[in-house]
Amino acid sequence: MSAQPMNFDTDKVYGKWVLEAFRDVLDDRSVNITYGGESKNLGDLLKDPDYPGGGFRDGIFPGPVKKVAVSGEENERIRLIYDKGYRLNQELLKTYWESKEYSTEQVDQSLCVSDREGNLVAKYGFTRIQITRNRLDNFIRDMGENDFVYLKPKPPKDTDS
């Protein structure tokens, strides 16, 4: 299923929108978005149209989403990176995913989310999500509409010495 036409001329871009658009690019689907006041094909906004997995050009998103791209030796993961001025609230994410009947596990500083069969679906760091590529559709379906509720401003550095 293709994503709906998207408007990237907003103050904020939801992670779900970016993932839907990126999935369409990876699946070689054509979808139009509004960017710079004009309707554009997603391919026009890629870093390298010959390698869509490299993601969108820098500066495309107004925030808090910074970047999306494939990663891993065999391109088996999708990385969604948020602006460093924000932190993903792993405690809220844990509660959310468990309410959707996923299991969660804290591993070092990451929150791992697995499906009922124990397959890793996503791994949340402080500013990024790594999604298992073959679980992307389920992740998008279940991630919720508003990922901003899981973002909190990064606390300022303590300058008192």
Quick recap:
The chain is an alpha+beta fold and 161 residues long. Helices cover 18% and strands 30% of the residues.
Task: Explain how this protein is built.
The chain has helices at 15-26, 90-99, 136-142, and strands spanning 6-7, 32-35, 38-41, 65-71, 77-82, 86-88, 103-107, 110-114, 120-124, 128-132, 151-153. The protein is an alpha+beta fold and 161 residues long. It has a domain at 6-86 and 128-148. The strands form three sheets. A six-stranded antiparallel sheet has the order 4-5-10-9-8-7, covered by helices on one side. Strands 1-2-3 form a three-stranded mixed sheet, with no helix packed on it. β4 and β5 form a beta hairpin. The longest helix is centred in the N-terminal third of the chain and has 12 residues, at 15-26. The termini are far apart. The mean pLDDT is 84.
